[in-house]
Specification:
- By secondary structure, the protein is mostly helical.
- It has one domain.
- It is built from 15 helices and three strands.
- The termini are close together.
């Protein structure tokens, strides 16, 4: 009886979209990673291992009633901060950033799991403040809640993940019933202030707490060819990505046939720019199919949020929807040249162990909320 009730509460379109995206990711990664390693299947085998571990994490997230997380929100928040501090003290540095902690042969990126921590703890905060998010004073605590992890992540430096936390906050505030007009004013004001700060930096030398390459990436997408190096400088990633996607045409060049990928013109084509590989090798029609799978995943996540039995569960699922939606918007946007290059991976698709574990763990929380929309004995 318990088993039948449990299976009846599973959201099969949600699960099906996850499996389909993961299967496609391995197929595309097999092409994208060819030639990077001496073993042509090295990255695919490792990614498959991360997927298996990720499903283990997803099952673990389903097992424990999400209500338990409400009681432990403070330890979760403090543990998250401790990990982010540990990165700065004992973390491994690569490509000018200190974002990873090594435990033997296992290397993980705490900022990926910080996203889940923020979703859980912010859900508890906003649930307690439900109905009291109508003016600027009411929003001070939610903004302070993410300020410290954001600051620690910016110091690494990891601008992309810091922006993800801000997107999660805004999305969850909207779902929690915050004043929509006030949120819109805050977003517009923030955009104006950032634009003014960047203008003042590049024209008058205003100091900003970002690396110079990060600042260049924030503006070069507006005109990637006008970077002072004939398209070979800060705009190189965007230019090569646009060439790759544009050359794919309607049906694509075919797997392992993409010239931008296999001649190594396109940087980071197995991680941040894997969507460019999809565009070049699968073409416009099949790319729409990939986007359709993500649409199903987001739609079902929001559907689950709407059917949650309490506000805490609704905010958990809504926070995950905000996380995935922002990742999709920025990653795909940067590959086609309408967003800055911020190093945000394509969820469930880009190569990366920490990101895969984090993605599947967060989706496990959504399934947890869905399974317990009614009281089911375990």
């Amino acid at each position: 009886m318990v088993g039948r009730r449990l299976w009846r509460n599973l959201d099969y379109p949600f699960i099906g979209s996850i499996i389909a995206i993961l299967a496609l990711s391995l197929v595309v990664l097999n092409s994208a990673a060819a030639g990077i390693s001496a073993d042509p299947d090295y990255y695919v085998k490792r990614q498959f291992l991360w997927i298996i571990l990720g499903f283990g994490a997803m099952l673990a997230a389903i097992k424990v009633d999400y209500q338990v997380l409400r009681r432990y929100h403070l330890p979760i928040y403090l543990f998250n901060l401790a990990l982010l501090v540990a990165v700065l003290l004992v973390g491994n540095e690569a490509k000018g950033a200190q974002r990873w902690i090594a435990l033997g042969s296992f290397i993980f990126q705490p900022s990926e799991f910080a996203k889940i921590s923020v979703i859980i703890t912010l859900s508890r905060l906003l649930e307690a403040r439900q109905g009291r998010l109508n003016n600027l004073k009411d929003l001070v605590m939610p903004f302070l809640h993410i300020a410290l992890p954001m600051l620690l992540i910016l110091v690494q430096p990891d601008l992309g993940t810091a922006l993800v936390l801000m997107a999660i906050l805004l999305g969850m505030l909207y779902l929690a019933g915050a004043n929509t007009a006030l949120l819109a004013k805050l977003i517009i004001t923030g955009g104006v202030l950032v634009s003014f700060a960047l203008f003042a930096h590049f024209h008058y030398g205003l100091p900003l707490p970002l690396k110079e390459y990060q600042l260049q990436r924030l503006v070069v997408f507006l005109n990637p060819y006008n970077d002072g190096e004939g398209g070979l400088g800060a705009g190189y990633h965007i230019i090569q990505s646009q060439i790759a996607i544009g050359s794919g045409g309607i049906w694509g060049k075919g797997l392992h046939q993409g010239s931008q990928v296999h001649l190594n013109f396109l940087p980071e084509h197995h991680t941040d720019f894997i969507f460019s590989v999809v565009g070049e090798e699968l073409g416009f029609i099949r790319t729409l199919g990939v986007l359709g799978l993500y649409f199903i995943l987001l739609y079902r996540t929001l559907h689950i949020a709407g059917r949650a039995k309490d506000m805490f569960g609704a905010l958990l699922a809504g926070g995950v929807a905000s996380l995935f939606a922002f990742h999709l918007l920025v990653n795909i946007g940067m590959t086609i040249g309408i967003m800055p290059v911020t190093g945000i991976p394509l969820p469930l698709f880009s190569y990366g162990g920490s990101a895969m574990l984090s993605n599947l763990l967060s989706l496990g929380l959504v399934l947890n909320v869905n399974l317990r929309r009614q009281k089911i004995p375990f």
